[in-house]
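anyone else get weird line breaks when pasting these?? whatever heres mine. first is seq + tokens for prot A
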Amino acid sequence: MSTSMSSRLGVLRYRDFRLLLADRFLAPSAFAFSIVGVSFAVLARTGSTADLSYVLAAQIAPNLVFAPLGGVIADRIPPQYVIAFANFLVAVCEGTLGLLVLTHNAQLWQMIALEAGTGTAVAIFYPASQALLPKLVPDSELQQANAISRLVMNGAMMGGAAAAGFLVAAVGPGWALVADALGMAAAVAPNLFIRAAATVREATPGIFSELREGWDEFRSHTWLWGIVVEYSIVLMCWYGSFSVLGPAVAAAHLGGPAAWGTIMAFESIGLIIGGFVALRYTPKRPMLFVATIGATIAVPSLALAMLWPVWLICVASLGVGIAIETMMVQWNVVMARYIPADKLARVSAYDVLGSVMSMPVGALLAGPIASAIGVSDTQYAAAALILVTSALTLLSRDIRTRHADDTPTAAATTAAVTAAAAATATAAVPLPPSPALPTAQGGLPAAAISSDA
């Protein structure tokens, strides 16, 4: 192994980081079965894109309440315990739905209720995930840790999505949901052995005071709320046109669940390649890079609208996956660098809340609009809105001009040094190194996209 590669993998010497890598393999590979299984369970039960809209909206809507609450909790108790609880809740909800589907007893209201439970788990998971990784590795190794952890996560997603597509095609969506439950249950254990402590704070104010403190920090950064607003609109359009209408297009024109699972797998391959790119590439202006990448999310919707061949849609998903993953690593590093450690979970909660709060709207609108004007016209309109929104975001000077070597605030720098010292102190020095559910969400920011720190 070259010296350069050895230095990039040196972060594996941290025991707790390795334990978190185990979670990031088990949970995403399991959750990929849900991404494919839920959609085709609803379509098999009712055949209605509107019903699918309701179920997928229920999976995202809990973020409106539980993402901020999850941020407060993760700033109060060790975040790995929050992640463990989230994994357990997904296992219960998806396992129950799987059994209902297998016994032909699944009703629409049950699907909505159980996916709302899964959505609650995703909502509380994300802020905890963002807060945990900076506790496990020094600040100087944060980019490498993010890239490696997301490589593991996306590799797991790739294998899970491909396997899920073929499993659904062979034996039906019920078994895919049961497989998801088993994998998520297994992902509970690694988190219980992580030794990261809760953030030390001089005082613990009330919940509303903490939420307000996190909000004040969030809105004080123009680059932060500007990009979050961009992705709120982008992900609304993407979720409705791709995640909701995509399975219907696959069922009608592309060959069904196996084709859809293959498309998801190629997106995950792109995410893996993007992780390797992120190990070596740091844009000079990271906020400009993040904002520009938003425009690429229009490509999958256009590919489905134009009914490209499956192999070409896979190529498009591959390319978008590379771009998205490179962007996500940069975003996670910027967040950890510029936001004080004792506020990071709460600010991350507002990040995920703002980014995904419109996704239920996209899910609820996609089915009815597609019924009124057609699936392809709905996807064209969504792609156009993504491109316009991304272009408007670039009007912000703070987003266009901020450089990677700009000095973070004194508070953020102090917090980063403190987190690095704590990580070094708790690491198993002689041993080799260790850094979560997504996504969303098919690999996109939560996230995914879902997705995670």
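and prot B, same format (seq, then tokens)
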Amino acid sequence: MRGHILVVEDETDLAELVSFNLKQEGYGVAVAADGASALAEARRQPPDLILLDLMLPDLSGIEVCRRLRAEAATASVPIIMVTARGEEIDRVLGFEVGADDYVVKPFSPRELVLRVGAVLRRGTTPLATDEPGETFDIGRMRIDVPRHEVCVDGEPVPLTALEFKLLLDLAHGRGRVQTRDSLLERVWGYAPGIETRTVDTHVKRLREKLGAAARYIETVRGVGYRMRDSVS
């Protein structure tokens, strides 16, 4: 078995479709139709990954995600939110409470399975450029790789593991434009061509956290992002 997936979805037909496709790929699957059942199942058997619908009949997916992240047994379990709500504020809120990715309905079951595989691989594959002992000083920002710490003007900036990985990738390529596809491939482990706003949403959240150092991440319209050494 490739891994155990918990599917949290109150639409029976969709839950069955997703479960079927995951099982075809060799995953074990458990299904929960509401938030309370999802929390109980996750506590009973912590899964390797959770597909979590945002709109549930009792607790919201946001609240379920928040509670999962607050419990030691499920704090590090990857969570992909699956929802019909695609507004940017929903994506940002989902990432704020600890979601790893965001898939908007309707979606291709095949693409969803590919994303599941990519997120699971990401958890076991270090960034190729993550070398022990490296420290980057970029303007007012310092990235300490061994400590997994980022400071701006000497003050620590709390980043998720994925945000740190994204920032480090941009730092390694500073001065060069990084396309969205290349970032998805290196940081998220996705194959080129997968349609997602994940990169843009994470960059937006990263900039908010970096404060005065946010301007070092430059948007190159129609292409991607570039880390600058300094800003005049």
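btw re prot B: Residues 125-130 have pLDDT under 50 and may be disordered. The CA atoms of residues 10 and 33 lie 4 Å apart.
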